[in-house]
Amino acid sequence: MAEARTESVAAATEVMAYFTRVMRGEEKDQFGLDAPLSERTRAAQELAKRTIDIENRMTGVSDQKIEIKLDWSR
Question: Can you tell me the distance from the alpha carbon of 17 to that of 37, in angstroms, rounded to the nearest whole number?
C-alpha cells in the first residue's frame, strides 16, 4: 500500500524508483494488470536518459543525444 505524501512534487529518487518498478514489471495498472512491454521499454528509456544525464553532469560531459535501438529479430 502506498503511503500518503505530503509533498506536492515527487522527489527525483521517487521518480527514478517508479520508472524502475515499471521497467521491472513490478508496477500494476488500475486493474491490477502488468504494464505492457511498450510501457516497460519507455520506462527503461526514461530511466536511461536520467541516469546518463546524472553521470554526464558528474563527469562534466556536455549533453549528448541518446538513441536506444531494440532489435527484436532474434
Answer: 18
The DSSP letter of residue 28 is: B
39: cell is: 510501457
Read off the pTM.
0.59
**What is the length of the chain?**
74
CB burial of residue 44 (10 Å; 0-12, 13-18, 19+): middle
What is the residue-level pLDDT of the chain in tens, covering all 74 positions?
456 666 688 888 898 999 999 999 999 988 999 889 999 999 998 888 887 766 666 676 665 566 777 778 76
Q: Which of 46, 34, 38 has its CA nearest to residue 70?
A: 38
C-alpha–C-alpha distance, residues 21 and 12, integer Å:
14
Decide if 23 contacts 47 (C-beta within 8 A).
yes
